[in-house]
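Key result, reporting period 2: structure in, sequence out.
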């Protein structure tokens, strides 16, 4: 008798699983559209990145390093889109975000140390200016 009772649970469980299939399909289609849209945005920004490589911002702004700064801004935007959407980070738990913030802090520190070395190099070393 217990076997028929277990069999009844399996049928009921299987039936409830089949009833949710159309909703899962609609949700999948919604995500697919989002992925295609973000992919299109990434293609457009990749074209912008290529176009920016032909523009000399250093002459426009009478400064030095503007091409790298603007390129890094565009690349950061693209990385954030990939991480948030394709890697599903926008819905992650707070612990994962804490690790990401630590990583950003660490990378910013490395960039800052590189900047300090560029401004005040170690005694006896030189770097060429182009």
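The corresponding designed sequence is given below.
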């Amino acid at each position: 008798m217990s076997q028929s009772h277990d069999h009844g649970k399996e049928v009921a469980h299987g039936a409830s699983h089949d009833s949710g299939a159309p909703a899962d399909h609609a949700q999948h289609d919604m995500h697919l559209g989002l992925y295609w849209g973000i992919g299109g945005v990434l293609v457009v920004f990749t074209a912008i990145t290529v176009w920016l490589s032909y523009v000399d911002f250093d002459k426009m702004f009478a400064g030095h390093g503007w091409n790298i700064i603007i390129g890094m801004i565009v690349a950061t935007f693209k990385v954030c889109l990939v991480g948030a959407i394709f890697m599903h980070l926008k819905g992650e738990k707070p612990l994962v975000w804490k690790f990401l913030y630590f990583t950003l802090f660490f990378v910013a520190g490395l960039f800052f140390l590189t900047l300090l070395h560029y401004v005040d190099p170690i005694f006896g070393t030189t770097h060429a200016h182009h």
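Residues 92-130 form one domain. The longest helix spans residues 21-52. This case is discussed further under Risks and Mitigation.
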